[in-house]
Specification:
globular; about 35% helix; about 120 residues; Beta-Lactamase; 5 strands
C-alpha cells in the first residue's frame, strides 16, 4: 500500500506525465498534487470535479451503476487529461487525475498506470 504522496511521486516519474493529483469530488479539495509542468492542478481539480459529477449523474439517469465507469479521457491538442473516479474501491468520492504530454504518452498505457495506482493507494 502507498499513501497519496508516494503514489503521486511514483506516477510523475513516468516519462510523459506532466502532473498528477488525488481529488475529493464531494468537497472539491485536492488531497495531493505533484506536477512537473502543465496546468495548475488545483484549478484543474476544481473543474474536473464538475466533469466527474456530471458523468456520474448521467450514468444514474441511464440506470447504469457508477462502478461501470473506469475513466474519463479529455484529449487536447498537446495533452491528455485522464480522470479515474475511484467508485469501484472503498474511496468513493475521490478521483485520480493525470496530465500527460500527448507526444510522449500512450493513453492506454496511462490507464494501466492509474489502475495499478488505485490498487496500491491507501488514503
Amino acid at each position: 500500500m502507498a499513501d497519496i504522496e508516494e503514489t503521486l511521486r511514483n506516477i510523475v516519474r513516468i516519462d510523459g506525465v506532466l502532473g498528477a493529483s488525488v481529488v475529493d469530488y464531494f468537497s472539491r479539495l485536492t488531497l495531493g498534487a505533484v506536477g512537473k509542468a502543465g496546468p495548475d492542478l488545483e484549478k484543474a481539480a476544481a473543474g474536473d470535479t464538475d466533469v466527474v459529477r456530471a458523468k456520474l449523474f448521467t450514468l444514474e439517469m441511464l440506470g447504469y451503476r457508477p462502478e461501470r465507469i473506469e475513466d474519463i479521457l479529455v484529449t487536447l491538442d498537446s495533452e491528455y487529461h485522464l480522470i479515474r473516479p475511484l467508485v469501484r474501491s472503498r474511496y468513493e468520492g475521490v478521483f485520480l487525475y493525470l496530465v500527460l504530454d500527448r507526444s510522449r504518452t500512450d493513453p492506454v498505457v496511462a490507464r494501466d498506470w492509474l489502475r495499478a495506482a488505485e490498487e496500491r493507494l491507501e488514503l
